[in-house]
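Renewal narrative, Specific Aim 1. Our central claim is that a sequence can be written position by position from structural information alone. The example that follows is taken directly from our test logs and has not been curated for this report. It begins with the structure tokens describing the chain, in the order in which they were read.
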């Protein structure tokens, strides 16, 4: 028996993480795969024994996991965002929630056929959406403007609101069906609801304030070492959740949400490491919860899925959600496109599944037969809404002009003269370009050159919130300080995938025995080749090199019957002009950053964007350049072009700027 339980736990973890990985690989909503693999592994194939997944421990684990997930969601909420969307968020979580509850309960009663009591309860459960489904969907869609902020705030704050509403409805139903309270009038029921709601709010605020203040004090006074910061934070969150739940039933969800919001917006300690830890923990918890709950279903649950359920699902998606959004957004200033997108974004998640499973267990003595269909209906709504919204939200956002289907913009960190020269040429190709630098002179010159530039400290916590990253899919870090560049790569990894973060190689001062280089897992991908560093590029530009658009000479391309050419293939032996490839320009659209040279592939009809100029001579300047890049002569990233390998497809009219490049504070 212990081995069976251990096997089930291991299988749940493997399936949960594996399903999310496959969903990312094939760009599918992760929840669909999680529910599918859980149902297949449980009731269909029997790999996971549903009978071993029953008991009070399961619901305690699910409830605690949801509390941790809501805490992580609260950490992503900035109160400054409420200046623009606060009124609409409040309306969506109050007026919108009440409309969803009332219309959903009516649909369950008149379409599906549940009795009034269960219809009201299930309607309350289906109010919640949650960060487990909203945040991954927003990350997939990447909408621009305030709709993403609105959806994030609603998805995170509606979870505790909906859970508390469902708990109050459940307690009211149990009160009305308790023989000791037979004949309780409307006044007694209303008093019970108001007292319960007041206690929920009072306990949640009180416990969250005390726990957050204690945690901030401990972290601010550095009473725990760095390696225990995340563990102590998790300990406090779990303790606050349990204390709140003991004082008032299900008050822990609101408590942990408030803790996350308060911790994210206090000015005393940084929470970046805590956010990273909680994000990793959330991935494990979400995968495990969905597989666990779907594996508990029985095959008999499929008998409850019929035309009436599909009609009810259509009512929720096509009428209830749009009505709730349009009513809640009256006077908000949202245009019709933003309202339409929000109307098509209400997938249900793990909170609805967990609460339905828990309540079905508690209500079985009261409604022994009708409650059997409660969990299958809720799971059907979860699967249906995730499938509908997950598969159509991105195309809808693109059709409405609120999302970029394939963001190909290039964001440069650093705006030195040689960086501006490269950025200008990339922008001339029709690719969106922006530069970030905290040096006001660099930013001013970039704007004078017609480039979008922002005076931003890339290591500040507000950098990600204050910068509009819509349309930018690649991050190119061009800073002279390798440690600062690595920190910037880590900082922006919350927004950019690691495959799209590039960083220059460490300079000679960082490759010495005393300094060393940053570990590879703390760095971005090599920018313009493994041996290209800031000093070598800057010195090449100072010698008058120019950024040119090149194509293969026809004679050379036809000479070799090859499908593609590598960096080594394009390296003639005769000494001539130095050509440092920067971007590959495929025969289609866009640009491809040249990173790992052993993976470089250039087809005969492709072009290059390269830095072209005279090679180093036997002078002090050449010696300095050689020291900056000792492999420049032999590395494929510095191609000598004596043979007619390239034709100039399009040359810049002016040489690269050569003004002095003062270091920024962050680069120093």
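The sequence written for that structure reads:
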């Amino acid at each position: 028996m212990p081995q069976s339980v251990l096997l089930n736990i291991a299988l749940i973890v493997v399936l949960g993480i594996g399903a999310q990985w496959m969903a990312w690989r094939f760009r599918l909503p992760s929840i669909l795969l999680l529910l599918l693999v859980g149902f297949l592994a449980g009731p269909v194939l029997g790999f996971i024994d549903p009978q071993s997944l029953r008991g009070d421990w399961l619901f305690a684990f699910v409830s605690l996991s949801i509390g941790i997930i809501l805490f992580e969601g609260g950490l992503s909420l900035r109160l400054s965002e409420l200046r623009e969307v606060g009124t609409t968020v409040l309306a969506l979580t109050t007026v919108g929630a009440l409309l969803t509850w009332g219309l959903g309960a009516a649909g369950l009663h008149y379409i599906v056929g549940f009795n009034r009591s269960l219809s009201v309860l299930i309607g309350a459960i289906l109010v919640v959406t949650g960060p487990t489904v909203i945040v991954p969907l927003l990350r997939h869609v990447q909408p621009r403007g305030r709709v993403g902020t609105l959806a994030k705030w609603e998805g995170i704050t509606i979870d505790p609101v909906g859970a508390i509403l469902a708990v109050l409805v459940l307690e009211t139903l149990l009160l009305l069906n308790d023989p000791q309270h037979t004949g309780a009038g409307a006044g007694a029921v209303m008093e019970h609801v108001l007292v319960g709601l007041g206690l929920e709010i009072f306990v949640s605020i009180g416990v969250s304030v005390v726990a957050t203040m204690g945690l901030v004090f401990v972290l601010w006074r550095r009473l725990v070492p760095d390696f225990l910061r995340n563990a102590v934070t998790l300990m406090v969150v779990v303790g606050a959740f349990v204390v709140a739940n003991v004082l008032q039933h299900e008050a822990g969800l609101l408590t942990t949400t408030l803790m996350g919001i308060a911790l994210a917006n206090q000015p005393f300690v940084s929470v970046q490491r805590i956010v990273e830890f909680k994000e990793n923990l959330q991935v494990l918890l979400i995968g495990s919860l969905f597989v666990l709950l779907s594996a508990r279903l029985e095959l008999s649950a499929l008998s409850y899925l019929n035309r009436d359920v599909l009609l009810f699902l259509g009512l929720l998606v096509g009428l209830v959600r749009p009505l709730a959004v349009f009513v809640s957004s009256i006077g908000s200033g949202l245009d019709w496109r933003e309202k339409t997108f929000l109307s098509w974004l209400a997938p249900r998640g793990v909170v609805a599944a967990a609460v339905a499973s828990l309540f079905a267990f508690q209500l079985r003595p009261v409604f022994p037969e009708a409650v059997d269909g409660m969990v299958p209906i809720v799971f059907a709504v979860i699967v249906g809404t995730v499938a509908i919204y997950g598969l159509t939200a991105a195309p809808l956002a693109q059709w409405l002009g609120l999302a970029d289907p394939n963001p190909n913009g290039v964001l440069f960190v650093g705006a030195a003269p040689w960086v501006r020269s490269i950025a200008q040429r990339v922008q001339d190709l029709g690719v969106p370009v922006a530069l970030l630098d905290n040096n006001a002179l660099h930013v001013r010159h970039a704007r004078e050159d017609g480039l979008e530039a922002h005076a931003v400290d890339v290591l500040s916590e507000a950098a990600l919130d204050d910068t509009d990253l819509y349309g930018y899919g690649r991050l190119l870090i061009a800073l002279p300080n390798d440690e600062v560049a690595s920190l910037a790569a880590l900082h922006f990894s919350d927004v950019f995938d690691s495959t799209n973060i590039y960083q220059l190689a460490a300079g000679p001062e960082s490759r010495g025995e005393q300094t060393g280089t940053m570990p590879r897992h703390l760095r971005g991908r090599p920018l313009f080749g493994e041996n290209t560093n800031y000093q070598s590029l800057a010195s090449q530009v100072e010698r008058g090199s120019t950024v040119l658009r090149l194509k293969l000479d026809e004679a050379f391309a036809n000479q070799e019957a090859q499908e593609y050419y590598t960096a080594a293939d394009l390296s003639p032996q005769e000494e001539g002009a130095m050509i440092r490839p920067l971007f590959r320009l495929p025969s289609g659209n866009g640009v491809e950053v040249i990173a790992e040279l052993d993976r470089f592939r250039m087809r005969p009809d492709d072009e290059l964007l390269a830095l072209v100029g005279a090679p180093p001579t036997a002078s002090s300047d050449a010696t300095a350049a050689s020291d900056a890049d000792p492999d420049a002569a032999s590395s494929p990233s510095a191609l000598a072009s004596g043979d007619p390998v390239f034709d100039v497809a399009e040359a810049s009219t002016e040489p690269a700027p050569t003004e002095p490049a003062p270091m920024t504070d962050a680069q120093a």
